[in-house]
Amino acid sequence: MKIAVIGAGAFGSWTAFHLQKAGHHVTLIDRHGPGNPKASSGGESRMIRSIYGKGHQYIQWTARSLALWNSFQSQWQEELYVKTGILWMFSESDDFARDALPVLDQLNLKVNELSKGTVAKRFPQINTDGIKTFFYEPDAGLLRANHSCKVVVDQFIKLGGDYVEKCVKPPECAHGELREIKMDDGATIQADHYIFCCGPWMGTVFPDVIGGLIQPTRQEVFFFDTPPEFMSGHMPMWGHFGDGFRYGIPGSTYHGFKFADDNRGASFDPETGDRNPSPAGMEAAKKYVSLRFPGLKNADIIDTRVCQYENTPDEHFIIDRHPEAENGWLLGGGSGHGFKMGPALGEVMADLVSGQKPINPFFALRRFDGDSLSEINLS
Prior knowledge:
single chain, alpha+beta, 6-stranded mixed sheet, 9 helices, 21 strands, about 25% helix
């Protein structure tokens, strides 16, 4: 089959790769390039971790993705994943960790609950005041985000896939199908199936079908100058549930100590939005890092990044057919946590397009039509 994939971020690049690997003729299209600075898959690093509360499907996809990240890293001789471990810290309820433990155990994914004393001895860089419980995932790690997107696209091309760097116009459906997609330069592409992985641009490409169901928000990330004890190999990634959720990645040969606040920011346009950090965001980052990591109290912020999450109302993915086109597919709504699952989601889309598996209603568009999510089982 001829298949067009629009968007070369984590979702689109892996989808194109798996489809091309399965023997289809795939054209991958992106306006700005794989893992570009405007994309939600841009930037140096992302986390891969397995604790997901009651999100059993996400845990399964993460487990599969971790296996694929490791496998392709070995095959391609490219560094995609760096094992660091992750320390989860909970100031209040730790249900997000405990609810995941049975599934993690079934999948042989290691998680250890640590005492405060053990954490203080093992990771003295961390101020544990005000934290009640700790869980440690030894196999978690950082993913080299924009580098990985470029590598996957390169491997896709080596398999015979076609890569085109152009802008796709909003498509028009006729008689229940998409017959072609048009580029901004007037060129057209015809395919049997079209898969749209447009990240924060999904609402612009499909204003009627998606519209506000995917809302980009402005997210600020800060990188601190990193003493040796805060580098990868000396301390893990971390995530802290307190008044909201904050997380970070230790320094590496690629970047400084990363800090991010997961609380959703203001609405953001990925094309025209201001990507300069706010003074308030910078001060909040310094305040938190100084408290939780005293050794970084006087560390300089050496780099910043303004990116975006593309959030759905329930923060779950959209994986579905276009409601007016049998051969049109929508994959998006990463909501700040999708990158790690790119390899598994690429397999999912390959199976859907080939008819080997049905659409999971939990991720379908119709859930936003008033259907109760409580009636759909993510596990």
